[in-house]
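Bench notes, afternoon.
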Amino acid sequence: MSRLHLVGLGPGAAELLTLRSWELLASGKPLRIRDPAQEAAQTILARGFNFESVSETDPEAIAASVIRWAKRSDSCVYAVAGHPLEAPEAVPILRAAASAGIEVVVEPAVTEVERLPAADPMTGTFAGPAALRGAIAFERLVAVMARLRSPDGCPWDRAQTHQSLAIHLIEETYEVLDAIDRHDMVDLEEELGDLLLQIVFHAQLASDAGAFEIGDVVEELIAKLVYRHPHIFGDVTVGGADEVVANWEALKHEQKGRSTGAEGIPKDLPALLYAHKVQRRISGAGRRWEASVQHLSTLAGAAASATGSDADAAFGDLLFEVVALAQLAGVDPEGALRRTATQHLSGNTGGTPDGLVQFPTPPSD
């Protein structure tokens, strides 16, 4: 059986190569390097090692060529920049090798994540053990999703579209909310995973269509967080959480070039959440929505005596005022009403509703 060594050249300098990689590159085995211009590769080639280059560009074509080449010897070395499993052709090579009866030995390399500087130049943050574990686990999740969507993957996963998955995204979101309401950390861990799956699934669909990849999604999110937190990553000073929200909304309005306050607010949001978002948008534009118990009482009296078509507007004004008061109190009106309705349904209406959470009004996305 032929043996193919997949060797990673690491993220750059030759000193980041593992000792095992050096041994294989210098072993005299047939050597093929996909990126001979890479820094570590240049250092290796300066020592006079014989090698073959790669002329193909498509991952499947590269894999087919590498397998044909590997069949001609008992043991050979295929080297790529970075970690060997980060190469686009890595998975096609593994599949083709399994069909061809070729043993593949993956020789690990230092990854970009593992050589992050002590302080990331963009955010000034340090990727500690939890972040590294998360990054590695996320890589595995993305790889599993890509496998499920591959030509010989799962028929159900391959049949899905953004539209067919939409209902699952909604369901998983509400299951997360339910776990939060029940203070069930075990369920919350699982439900957050299910919600994350939907995000990775949609990103994989977009990648399959050539639109964008999950890495683009994450990088865009990082850039947004940095841009909209100038009080952390810039020289802006804020006086508290309310000013953070106002700055966030103002920066978002400027960044997105919105011409009206209604742009970017989904019309299909639940009514209380829609009103909450509208009020946040108004407050972010510098026109804080004024609400008071006295005004609520006036609106309640008007709604109680309204009839016909006037009742619709009167109760709308009343509910809008309730949402504004909830926002001032730091209460999520959608969640509060959902929890109260659930308790009425179960007959448990005494005392403070379980799961009632007060929180500073978060900036919208």
